[in-house]
Amino acid sequence: MADSTKCFYEILGVSQDAEEDEIQAAFEASKTAFEVLNDPKKRGAYDRQKAKENEKELKLKIQKLEKELEKKKSQEKEEDDKCNDLEKLKMEMGEIGGAGHFWGDDKRTEMGDEEFKKVLRLLAAGQKKVNLKFVYNDNLEVAKAGWTIQFKSAYKKYGGDGKYYYLWISNKEGGAQLKATAQEIHSVTGEEANRRKLQSENDGTRQRIKYEKVDCYSFVRFNITIL
Q1: Computed from CA positions of residues 77, 78, 79, 85, in that sequence, does the dihedral angle turn out positive or negative?
Q2: Number of Cβ within a 10 Å radius of residue 101
Q3: CA–CA separation, 200 vs 150, rounded Å?
Q4: Predicted pLDDT at 2
Q5: What is the pLDDT of residue 104?
């Protein structure tokens, strides 16, 4: 046996559990390596080939990194644009228009479809707090930018159950979990009544807010927080 301080398994690059054919293949590979590296011409050709392969591999890695960097820059720009759009829309709408929460006496009339669509654009841009105002006999569904608002009157005369107002807010991914402070609003004075803090509940694939009618005021306002 040849004298060696290195493990024979390590020399051949195989494990101690290697089968005979695996050991044979490793031996043949080592023979080929010896024949090439022991010949100056063959070794030079091999080194040049390896250098080209390494250069090609390096170029591919650089290209991959450049693409990843470009993608990251694009995502950051998209996020910046989204933030800018959100801030611009918030300034344009203000709390009166539905951006953020609205507290205190509220002499606004109910929101219409176009106002609800602006609120939905806010939600799509990442806004978490909005306010919505409905008239008691509203039964509507408005969609924009992948988000949907649906409201159902509490009054039986308008298709309700006689007890609860219902509000659904959903997006393309399904129901958006939310909490709300709901109030009934007097149509003349803007006075608030029947304040309730509510949490959305599952309603199929959507989330629903259920608000009990108490004071029979003309308007219903929800200060919404998307969770």
Answers
A1: positive
A2: 15
A3: 14
A4: 52
A5: 81
| Residue-level pLDDT at 181 | 98
Residue with tokens 């509507």: 140
Show the CA angle centred on residue 40, arms to residues 39 and 45, nearest 5°.
Answer: 100
- Where residue 146 falls (left for φ over 0; alpha for ψ -120 to 50; beta otherwise) is left
Beta bridge pairs of residue 129: 225
**Residue for token digits 């402070």?**
181
* pLDDT over 90, % of the chain: 63
Angle between helices 40-93 and 20-37 (to 10 degrees): 110
**Are the C-beta atoms of 167 and 222 separated by less than 8 Å?**
yes
Q: Scanning the structure block, which residue is given the tokens 């390896």?
A: 50
Segments of the chain with pLDDT less than 70: 1-4, 80-82, 86
